[in-house]
Amino acid sequence: MTLVSMLAKHWRMDVNTAGIGAAVPAWTMVRALSKWEKTTDDNVEDDGDFDDESGYGSDVITERKWKIEAEGKRKRQSTEVFVPDAGQEYIRKAARKVGYAANIEVRWYRRDGSPEAYQGVCQVSEFTVGGEKTDLEPFSFTLLGSGEDVEIDNPLAA
């Protein structure tokens, strides 16, 4: 069987607009993303000692942090009255807060049949808007993980 490349565009991200710990979460898709990337930043400590006679060292990961960087185009409902995309707007508003009040809950998962799906609490950093006069207005943000991102059942598999 031939392997086929997976497409990055099959990731989807939702934000819980009901808030962390709500009895009934309100998962709202963050729409109009054109770039999405989840990474980790690992703290690595040297674990080598004099007992090693092979000449090779040893490292241990003592902490792992996750973050999501995303960007897209700001979009709104095509109505006469301004109605922004609810997912984008929730993240934009959270980016204006600090401390515990800035925490939001997100989940991200593949929508191509893969079982991959994760959920975590994070804070929004660096929400940017603007652009050149001829641009479609872009937005970008960074989500800084707070604690572990956990594997969940893919919501599209249900």
How does the SSE layout of this entry go?
Elements: E1 11-16, E2 27-29, E3 33-46, E4 59-73, H1 86-94, E5 103-110, E6 117-129, E7 138-145, E8 150-151
Task: Please explain how this structure is put together.
- By secondary structure, the chain is mainly β.
- It is built from one helix and eight strands; from the N terminus they run ββββαββββ.
- Strands 1, 2, 3, 4, 5, 6, 7 and 8 form an eight-stranded antiparallel beta sheet that branches.
- The longest helix has 9 residues, at 86-94.
Largest sheet: 8 strands, antiparallel
Structural class: mainly beta
H/E topology pattern: EEEEHEEEE
The percent range for helix content is under 10%
Mean pLDDT: 92
What is the strand content? Answer: 35-45%
Rg (CA only): 19 Å
Distance separating the two termini: 28 Å
Give the total of beta strands. 8
Low-pLDDT ranges: none
Number of helices: 1
Overall spatial form: globular
